[in-house]
Amino acid sequence: MILKGSKKFTSEHLRAARGLLRWDQADLATASGVSLPTIKRLEKKAGPLTAHGPTLQALSRALDEAGIEIIYESSEGGIGVRFRNPTTAC
Fold first, then answer.
1. Which of 13, 26, 67, 89 is most buried (most C-beta within 10 Å)?
2. What is the tens place of the pLDDT at every residue in 55-68?
3. CA distance 15 to 75
4. Helix ranges restricted to H, the chain
5. CA–CA distance, 88 with 90 (Å, rounded to integer)
6. Alpha-carbon torsion 5, 77, 58, 35, what sign?
7. pTM given for the model
């Protein structure tokens, strides 16, 4: 998952991805190397994540490595998350 351009990685993406993976916030912290308090802070506020680039990249990388695809808002529809491969399951 590459974060660039007008694509906005949101707290809704983060929470939905954790739900799909059946991860709690501590699981995401472990997988990403981002502190639990930072994840809690980021998920609390709706909308685009406001964090330093390395933090966003670490979160993105962890979800990508877990097989998550982020779906960004477009003219075709709203935001979402899904498994990149149909056979991926928790």
1. 13
2. 999 999 999 999 99
3. 23
4. 11-21, 25-32, 36-44, 53-65
5. 7
6. positive
7. 0.85
